[in-house]
Design goal:
- With 663 residues, this protein is an all-alpha fold.
- The protein folds into four domains: 185 residues, no CATH class; 119 residues; 134 residues, no CATH class; 199 residues, no CATH class.
- Helices cover 59% and strands 3% of the residues.
- It is built from 30 helices and four strands.
- The chain has a two-stranded parallel ribbon. A two-stranded antiparallel ribbon has the order 3-4.
- β3 and β4 form a beta hairpin.
- α7 packs antiparallel against α8 and α18 packs parallel to α21.
């Protein structure tokens, strides 16, 4: 099983590389260890896994020495393929162990046809290994680890050494061009450090080696995107898509490749422009990219089109349709011809007139929620606005489904833009005063909205406030009683509010219920390795990592416990492969088996308000015994949490009573 959250011990990325990758050819500043130094713990064993891989790469006449590689012929493509598989299977320890082994020997490298590769100084690794290593370092940088500065330093040293070997290579001077994917990887490693100092350093290396202004501009764009400097990003964007007629054929081809490699930054820039209603500017960038024969992949294209529909940027959709062989469906139930300043009430009027049915028709009308942004942070103003829109809907259609659509749009907007108290107050107004509890329940049936309906919005809104642990517990218990279909995002919201050791029992309660209901969705088939694997989603792994890193006591104990749980659950799925034969669906792990994995005496499998308060008091006492106090303790408001939780319980009690009255 591949873990997506880091282990808080001595296995940080920077230390892993320093311990394993002590190869002067790659990192000359670390120096070569004495010959008596045993680099690998298993290098005395002739049957170690690295020995096996190297034997696969040997020519028939060579033999592998158990301690060192001396004067052997290895096939480059076989070793590279092994490294690529280790990278893809997320095994950095063995990856660097193998790279270290080949870097400390005297090897003659052979190409696929068996001829020696001699276009680089003797006893130096071929440049292909630099390209491959940059891919691995970039993959490591995607983790939520505290090693991004270390990776940035490594990438600078790697690039500097790469250019040095380039000048010393036997390739004819002037014809050698650096691998642009390697340059992109090094750039993004630097960018992820968010250090302007390292950015300037890599740009100087590019300038000294005549890599061209476009690469420097794209690296600057990537830096602005990573650091969310949107104004600066917009200023430099046009220079990243220059006049396509100014280049020769080779330079043009290289520029197109660079643009494609940096396409995530370009896509993010376009998304910012669309969100800011910079429609004309976005269209100009799209037209400039088309002159370079640049094409977005289907995923990015779909996301840009949907975002444009959400923000009613119809010119962008038309431009993308003109540049693409496929055409997006842009009809918005009569809204496509409306000016952007049309009010929400006018939009609802058109939807009602066109008999829009959100429970049957899929739509891209989320952009209407942006028309709520102008309302001030005043509860009475919002209540008045809700009344006006609802009165209009009652007069024109009185359809519960259209009112459900309006409520869902309203709460999705509130969950990300207002505090939880404000959001909960409006929900209470909708249920108690407006008597719209039926449309509220219907939001779960809106087409294409299964994972973003009202109650999921409540989970997300509550997770934005640190004083909502008991509130989220109450919300979960109330919905669990009626058999509600939770998503992994609901449990992510519960994990996010865990901020310190006092939250331990609540954390394991949420983690357990996540695995009860969602773990079968994390069991996937890896096409590359041709095997099944089980892994936690990245966001879940990040939330777990954040909680583990915030613990004041028992850090190692909890880290080991979480790792053991995920290991055991993953092993259960991989070993049992619990498929239902009739449909090919995956059977969730047995609850009794999962409880055994968590530990019956260690975990609270049932938790209500009283149990929560007792468990928190117990953990608080353990903290006081250690004389520990954190900023998170001061931020958490228990009284507010109790109040929110009671209001949530009252809401559900009221809705249940209304349902009983109608039976």
């Amino acid at each position: 099983m591949k873990l997506l959250f880091k282990r808080y011990s001595s296995s940080h990325i920077g230390k892993l590389i320093k311990d394993s990758l002590i190869t002067p050819e790659i990192l000359p500043q670390l120096g070569r260890q004495p010959s008596s130094h045993k680099r690998l713990p298993n290098n005395k064993r002739t049957n170690s896994i690295t020995d096996k891989w190297l034997k696969d790469a040997l020519t028939r006449k060579d033999k592998l020495n158990e301690d060192k590689l001396q004067n052997v012929n290895l096939r480059l493509n076989v070793v590279l393929t092994t490294l690529q598989k280790l990278r893809t299977s997320d095994n950095p320890a063995l990856y660097f162990a193998l790279l270290n082994r080949i870097g400390t020997g005297h090897i003659k490298w052979l190409n696929k046809s068996g001829r020696q590769i001699d276009a680089f100084p003797p006893d130096r690794l071929p440049l292909e290994f630099y390209h491959e290593l940059s891919n691995m370092l970039y993959k490591l940088s995607l983790r939520s680890a505290n090693d991004k500065i270390a990776l940035a330093k490594f990438s600078l040293q790697l690039l500097d050494r790469y250019y040095f070997l380039k000048t010393k290579s036997l390739t004819i001077e002037g014809k050698f061009r650096a691998n642009i994917k390697f340059l992109r990887n090094c750039t993004l490693l630097i960018v992820k450090s968010q250090s302007n100092y390292y950015l300037r350093a890599i740009q100087r290396l590019f300038a000294e080696n005549s890599e061209g202004q476009l690469l420097a501009n794209l690296s600057q764009l990537a830096f602005y995107v990573e650091t969310s400097q949107w104004t600066s990003m917009l200023d430099i964007l046009s220079s990243c898509v220059p006049d396509s007629g100014l280049r020769g054929s080779k330079e043009r081809e290289r520029a197109i490749q660079l643009l494609e490699l940096f396409s995530p930054c370009l896509v993010k820039s376009l998304k910012v422009m669309i969100a800011q209603n910079m429609e004309n500017e976005a269209c100009q960038i799209l037209r400039s990219l088309s002159e370079w024969n640049f094409h977005f992949d289907q995923h990015d294209s779909s996301n840009l089109i949907q975002l444009s529909q959400n923000h009613s940027c119809l010119k962008v959709i038309e431009t993308m349709n003109g540049l693409s062989s496929t055409t997006a469906v842009t009809r918005q139930f009569g809204l496509e011809k409306l000016p952007t300043d049309v009010s929400l009430k006018q939009s609802i009027h058109i939807l009602s007139k066109d008999n829009f049915e959100p429970l049957k028709q899929d739509s891209f009308l989320q952009f209407l929620s942006f028309k709520l942004s102008d309302l001030p942070l005043n509860l009475e103003v919002w209540k008045k606005h809700i009344k006006e829109v609802d009165d209009q809907m009652q007069a024109e259609s009185n359809l519960h489904s259209l009112r459900a659509f309006f409520i869902d749009m309203l709460l999705c907007h509130l969950s990300v833009r207002k505090d939880f108290d404000f959001m909960l107050s409006l929900v209470e107004h909708i249920v108690y005063e407006k008597n719209l509890w039926q449309p509220l329940l219907l939001t779960d049936n809106i087409v294409g909205n299964k994972e973003n309906s009202t109650f999921h919005c409540l989970f997300h809104g509550a997770s934005q406030d640190i004083s909502t642990k008991l509130t989220l517990l109450a919300l979960y218990n109330q919905l669990n009683e009626i058999g509600y279909q939770f998503t992994s995002h609901d449990f992510l919201s519960m994990l996010k509010v865990c901020k310190n050791y006092s939250d331990s029992d609540f954390f394991y309660f949420a983690f357990y219920n996540l695995l009860v209901t969602q773990s079968h969705k994390f069991f996937l088939f890896d096409k590359f390795s041709d095997k099944f694997s089980w892994r936690l989603p990245i966001q879940i792994g990040d939330a777990i990592s954040e909680w583990l890193s915030s613990l004041e006591i028992d850090i190692q104990e909890n880290t080991d416990r979480v790792l053991q749980i995920t290991d055991d659950v993953g092993e259960w799925y991989v070993e049992n492969k619990p498929f239902k034969s009739e449909k090919g669906t995956i059977q969730p792990i047995n609850i009794m088996e999962l409880r055994k994995i968590f530990g019956e005496r260690k975990t609270l499998f049932h938790m209500d308000s009283e149990i929560f308060q007792k468990s928190k008091a117990k953990r608080d006492k353990e903290m006081r015994n250690e004389a520990l106090f954190t900023a998170n303790d001061a931020e958490y408001n228990f009284a507010a949490d109790v109040s929110y939780a009671k209001r949530v319980e009252n809401l559900f009690s009221y809705i249940r009573s209304k349902q009983m009255q109608q039976k």
